[in-house]
Write a structure and sequence with these properties.
By secondary structure, the protein is α+β, with helices and mostly antiparallel strands. It is built from 14 helices and nine strands. Helix 4 packs parallel to helix 8, helix 9 runs antiparallel to helix 10 and helix 13 packs antiparallel against helix 14. The longest helix has 31 residues.
Length: 447
């Protein structure tokens, strides 16, 4: 009976078991392993954030409480307002263009055999530091076409359609029959057929002459026609050569355009030969000869990429060059998980490739595109290196961004309070984007 009673009696509380995490690891042990990371997180992230918040409430010396004066400067200081405006441009365009290019590259390279090699080339700039990329693009955007690749290409294309003059510095010499007229040069008196005309000029460097320029000669008279010579009337050496007549070492202005003008209208025109001679028909008799301004147009030197107007788009271009590969790799990974039967079904139903891309591929890749765009938005809010290195001193104010202005206020101008306020403001700008990303990821993780 006793044993039966004992058997029927309720058992006592079970011995406590050690609490374990879902992975089977003791929570104390897990906390010990996480402790170094937590210490580093507190020292390198939480403490700087807290210190920046406190420091932003004090003046430059750090001794007197300034309240929100430093935050007021965010909206009254011209440099900070320019930086804020440029940051808006960066956030709108840089992530959008990088993501769009990454999407295009990922989709197009999926069908070609050499797609892997192309992706490698596009992704390669990610292996370059921002410092190195800044130096590279500072050279790429150099104003001199002989140094800057961008202007070398631009000038080459421009000169293919509008050839620059070989005589931009040319002007009439002493005792010349030519006078200036709105960038052009016109003879003082009308010319006569059968009487050669001498049009001496100076101002062209020896190395700037066209390749087809030859020794200048005096034009021969031709009945019923106006002939003449236009040449460089200058011989090296004091007292050497005859003024107003071609000498043995003087060269003709090959390709110089000459027009005959009567009553304000061009009645005839010609181009000088390699020796500088030209011939006009009988209609030029009694006209004034004009060397049009196009003969003296300055050589086209390209675009001032790093000038105040284009410096921000130019720097954004260098950023896109670096990060389009990052976007392409992530989008390509997402594209690999897209069900192929959906794409094939759309094609069977008669959809064109553009319709398949726009109505099937892009909607299926929307989560990946959102991740890439949000990641790049956070990244561009902190951009500093490219702007600091690429923008020259004359344009740095126009290319200014918040991260660069933080550096300038804190170290160049000695205003750490305002710099801390900018840092806190940047943090406040980043937090909503991060929360949006976290919420979206949580929604996707729900069954």
């Amino acid at each position: 009976m006793a044993s039966a009673a004992a058997a029927g009696a309720p058992s006592g509380p079970a011995a406590p078991k050690s609490r374990r995490s879902v992975t089977g690891t003791r929570k104390v042990v897990a906390a010990l392993f996480l402790l170094p990371a937590l210490v580093l997180l507190g020292a390198l992230v939480l403490y700087p954030i807290g210190y920046s918040v406190v420091r932003s409430l004090y003046d430059s010396s750090g001794d007197q409480f300034a309240g929100f004066d430093n935050y007021q400067a965010l909206f009254t200081d011209d440099g900070i307002r320019t930086a804020l405006k440029n940051n808006v441009i960066w956030v709108v365009f840089a992530p959008t263009v990088s993501t769009a290019l990454g999407l295009v590259f990922a989709v197009l390279t999926e069908r070609v055999r050499w797609g892997t090699a192309f992706k490698l080339v596009v992704f390669m700039p990610m292996a370059i530091s921002m410092l190195a990329a800044g130096i590279i693009f500072r050279l790429v955007y150099d104003q001199d076409p002989d140094k800057g690749v961008a202007n070398a290409v631009w000038v080459g294309v421009h000169d293919s359609f509008a050839q620059a003059s070989a005589f931009p510095k040319a002007h009439p010499g002493r005792e010349s029959p030519l006078v200036g007229q709105g960038g052009a040069f016109v003879t003082k008196d009308p010319v006569k057929a059968g009487t050669p005309v001498a049009l001496p000029m100076v101002g062209v460097a020896p190395d700037q002459f066209p390749d087809d320029a030859k020794r200048a000669v005096t034009a021969r008279p031709e009945p019923g026609k106006v002939t003449g010579t236009v040449w460089q009337d200058f011989t090296r050496g004091k007292g050497v050569g005859k003024l107003g007549a071609p000498d043995a070492t003087e060269r003709g202005y090959a390709g110089m355009r000459i027009e005959a003008v009567k009553d304000g209208k061009v009645v005839a025109s010609a181009k000088a030969a390699g020796d500088g001679t030209f011939t006009l028909p009988a209609s030029a008799d009694g006209a004034q000869l004009r060397l049009p301004a196009a003969n003296f147009k300055e050589a086209y030197n390209g675009v001032d990429w790093l000038g105040p107007a284009l410096v921000t788009p130019a720097i954004i271009g260098s950023y896109v060059w670096m990060w389009a590969g990052f976007a392409m790799v992530l989008i390509a990974a997402g594209l690999a998980g897209v069900p192929r039967e959906l794409l094939e079904q759309a094609r069977v139903d008669g959809a064109s490739e553009w319709q398949v891309f726009r109505k099937v591929t892009v909607p299926l890749l929307a989560p990946v595109l959102a991740v890439v765009t949000v990641t790049l938005m956070i990244n561009v809010l902190k951009v500093f290196d490219l702007v600091y290195i690429i923008a020259p001193g004359s344009s740095q104010d126009d290319a200014n961004v918040l991260a660069l202005e933080l550096y300038r206020k804190g170290f160049s101008e000695g205003r750490p309070g305002v710099a801390s306020a900018i840092a806190v403001f940047l943090l406040l700008l980043v937090i909503p984007v991060m929360l949006f990303n976290i919420r979206r990821l949580r929604r996707e993780g729900r069954p």
